Structures are given as structure tokens and as C-alpha cells.
Amino acid sequence: MTAAAGDGTVAKALEVLDLVAGFGHPVRFSDLLDHSPYPKATLYRLLQTLVAQRMLSFDPDRSTYTLGLRLVRLAHAAWDQSALAPIARPHLDVLSAEVGETVHLAQMDHAQVLYVDKRNARDPIPMYSQAGKVGPAYCTGVGKAMLAYLPERDLPGILSQQSWHPFTPKTVTSTAAMMQELATIRARGFAFDDEEHEPGIICVAVPILSTGGAVLGALSVTSTTARTTLDNLAQLAPRITQIARTIGQETTNWRFPEETAHPNRKRA
Amino acid sequence: MTAAAGDGTVAKALEVLDLVAGFGHPVRFSDLLDHSPYPKATLYRLLQTLVAQRMLSFDPDRSTYTLGLRLVRLAHAAWDQSALAPIARPHLDVLSAEVGETVHLAQMDHAQVLYVDKRNARDPIPMYSQAGKVGPAYCTGVGKAMLAYLPERDLPGILSQQSWHPFTPKTVTSTAAMMQELATIRARGFAFDDEEHEPGIICVAVPILSTGGAVLGALSVTSTTARTTLDNLAQLAPRITQIARTIGQETTNWRFPEETAHPNRKRA
DNA sequence: AAAACAAGTTTCAAATAATGGAACCTGCAA
DNA sequence: TTGCAGGTTCCATTATTTGAAACTTGTTTT
Which residues of B touch A30 (CB under 8 A)? Predict the structure, then answer.
């Protein structure tokens, strides 16, 4: 269902990678077997391939599998290459210093929100430990901010993939209600998360748009009801929006450096 | 040569991933075609698969490929799961604060050194931008520190894979000389890099060992000949060793939490 | 405007690799 | 010794991958 089927060996191998990643700790063959749709021999061979490719590493003492170092290497490249995250980093530092609250940078992945960077309030937790996590789009500030500015034709598909699980009494739980909410967000220019995901957690979020208007990601400042109110957070919106606009512009320039002319490209 | 051949579709797909990663920026189909051993149609289908799996993302406006968000997600998991890096992190912070110089955490990957975390001297560059790089084992402090404590039976294989390129006049450039050097390192307990990789760059490095003596990684403090000397750096060795031992112990405990007894494990 | 071209996409029979049920190891425990 | 669970290997069947060539599409050149 997730992927795979008669899709391709690559898909299956990646599903196995996800499976190992999901455990969050070294796993034995039989653990994986119990949780995978593949027969013993198939899974075994997939694991062998992945280990040979160093996408997984195998600890012979414990006979367990872990995610491999090649993955870390690729990730480094992925991060550097993604236009948004490296460009946004210094701006996150600035924003974090100014507001002193938790700051999130997120992008859409599939129909979910992927946190790609983060600054913590007091003593900042290094991003790696936090980023990389995915969250629901329909009940987070960053998620709603992005949804609100997505092309209309993409929305139905994405909304239909939301779980609409009512995490709290304030969670928006239907496509219809969400369409309403998104209109409000567009009118307002930024999104709130009013304890829709976790009780006591509130945030303001703004979309990061390319100069062409495409959604690149979202930026948010998060706090708790114990410390502040939505109204107070709303005060920050102009500043956050300003920073998001800068990030959007810089990213657009990075992605389309030769806006003025397009001379013949030559190959390597 | 690198991998693949008649090896498996997965290997080929991963090679394509590496290829994209190698460019360091979005690439067009034809760029990849020029640098890949695969015929047009094959490469095309591999790319399609990877995009479908969100390991790559395709920008239709520019018709370019970039590393995808699924990769970022997997990589974060890889980092979190690797026993060494998350455990070492706070210790790196401590060491960095104490010595005020560049600190590296590395692991062996294949026969090379993979930097998995880093602290910079003045204003620390966040790790993601630096870590993930690989370097040669035979001419870096961390590399030699790890080589010195590897099981003897693994050494020949690994040494035979070194390029022995003489980066500087001081670079060790033969297996024989290296065996000598490794003996010295074992006797001394830590390794130097005496401008063997880059002129003017020197460092002290110690291995991080499990309580069983297995090489988990290495920890180093790097500086320049303009700022200090090897003798001065050597003064730091006891402290670095102490920290490395702590990291080694904590990591060992994390990996083998039930050292005392091993009751019947049950499955999920 | 027509022709030539470059870049990307699709086709299809042949070749190859993946599949998975079952047999087979290998400790370890009863 | 026997039984058993966790791993590993076999191999005929099956399904996927392969890649030369044909085909689109969009862009220069004449």
C-alpha cells in the first residue's frame, strides 16, 4: 500500500530501508521478517544487497541491521543541495535570536510536513536530532500555511490523504472545514496552530514562496499557552513574514540564477 | 568498478543517486547521461523510479533532478540510530568549549574516513554542512587513529585500498611506512596529523573504542602551525582520550544494554 | 517557413534477474 | 539424542529489466 507491489526491486529495497529506520534501533532478521510483506528468502536477499551497498550495516556479533553510513553521506549532499534549507539557516538563527522561541523550517513531503531545520528556545537542540521528522499537514501551523498557498489543483489530492485524526478538540477534521480555514489563512497572510496538534502548543506560521508564488516551505514560531497567547504570537507575524520573503527570494535566485538571459548551455 | 555491473537493480539505482549527489546541484537528464555507464532508456527508467520513490525530486520547470526528501528523512534516522554520533554529541560540545579548536568525530566507511560530526573553532558551523564528507584514512589524524586499532586481519585489505597520494611532502605513502607509523601510534596511544594532508594543518586524534576494544570511531582536535605546535596539541591528548573513553563506554552500553543476562527475547 | 537538430520519451522482443517454496544448515535447549 | 528456532542456500518458474531504435517535442539554423 505504502509503495511497492509489482513495482520494482528498488521500491522494495527502499521499503526495507524504511522498515529498518522505523525501528529506531538495531534489528534482527526475524524482527524484520515479522514486519515485512516479503517471504524469507526475498527479504534476506534484499538485506544482503543493502548491506553490500552500505545502505545498511550488519553487526555480526549481535546479528543486527542498522542504517548504514552511505545514507549519512547521501543525506549530507541532499541537505546541501536542497535550495531551501542551507539558504534559510542563517535566517533561522536571526529569527531564533530575536524571538527566543522555538523556530521550525518545514517542507511538504508527499502529503505530510517534513521538518528540515529547527531552533530551540532556551538551549538549542542541534537540528539533526529533531529535523527529519514528519508530521501531519492538517493540524500544524507550517502544514496549514503551505496548504493555503498550494496550487488549487493539487489540494484535493493532498487533502484526501490526510488522516483527519482529532488529536485535540480543536483539530480541524474535515476537508470542508479545512477549505474554510485555508481561505482565512490566505486572507490573513499567515496561519495559526491553536492547540490543534498538541494541547498547550500554539504557533504562528507563514509560507515561504518563490517569487513566482510557488510554495517552497514554511517557517513558524512555536510556544505554549502557558507562556503566551495567539494574539501575542500574531504580533510576530510581520517579522516572520519579512524573513520568509527574504528566504523565498534568495532561494528563487539560487534556483533560477540566469533569469535575464538564457544563452546556449554547453555540456560537460 | 565502483559497484554495480550485473549486480542488481538496486545497486544501479543507488549509483545514480550518488551520481546526482556528486554534482552538488540540480542536474539535467543529459548531464547524467554523459556521466553514467547506462544507456539512455535504462537511465531514464532508473530516474523515474527514484523520483517515484521520492529519493530524487524532479523540477518540471527546469527539468532537473535533485536529491529528494525521502533521503533526508532516512538520513536523519541513520544519524539518530548510529550509536556513536548522538551519544558523542554532548561530549563534542564539552571538548569544543574546552579547547576552542576544531573538533572532528569520524567513523570508518569502506576504507575511508567519514566525518560524522564537527565543531568549529570560532563560530561553530552547524554540523550538517560539514559532516557527511569523506576523507582519506592514511593521511588524517582520525584515519590513522582508527587504522592503528583495527583488527590485524582487516588491515591489509583496507591499506590496499588507500591511494597513497602524496598530498604534502610529509604524507606517508606506503603500506610499510604506515605499519611502522601505526605501531608508534599504538605505543603512544594517540595519533598526529603532521601536515600530512594539507600544509599547515596539524591535529591530534584518538580512537574511540568499545569496552571490547573494537574501533567505533575517532575524535580529533585540529589546528594550524600558525597557531600552535604538535607538542602543544599533545598536551591535550590525555583529556581527549578521557572523553573518547567515556564515549566508547556509553556507546558500548547503548549497543549491548543487557550485558548481565540474556533472557528469552520475545518478538513483536 | 522549412529543415535540421537536440533533448527527452516510448516501444518491444530478447536477456536477465528476482521470486519464494522447500530443503538445508547450525547452534542451542529439552 | 531429538527438537526447534533463527538463518542461509537452491533452483525451476516467473516477471522485470534491458537497450537499440523509433518517435515526440521544442528549439535553433538555413
Answer: 267
Question: CB distance from B63 to chain A under 8 Å?
Answer: no
Residue of A nearest to B80 (CA): A129
Nearest residue to A242 via CA among A203, A193, A189, A192: A189
- With a cut of 50, say whether residue A15 has pLDDT above it: yes
A69·B54 Cβ contact <8 A: no
Fold of A82-255: Beta-Lactamase (3.30.450)
Q: Write down the pLDDT at residue B126.
A: 38
What top-level class would CATH report for the domain A9-71? mainly alpha
pLDDT given at position A144: 98
Residue B16's contacts (CB-CB under 8 Å, 6 or more residues apart) are B32, B36, B38, B43, B46, B47, B50
Please judge whether B129 and A79 are an interchain contact, meaning their C-beta atoms are less than 8 angstroms apart.
Answer: yes
Average pLDDT over residues A118-124: 69
Q: Which fold has domain B9-72?
A: Arc Repressor Mutant, subunit A (1.10.10)
List the grid coordinates of A68: 548504514
Nearest Cβ partner of B79 from A77, A109, A128? A128
What would the mean pLDDT of A54-67 be, rounded to a whole number?
A: 87
Domain ranges of chain B: 9-72, 82-255
Q: Tell me the C-alpha distance between A156 and A11, whole Å.
A: 26
A26 touches chain B (CB under 8 A): yes
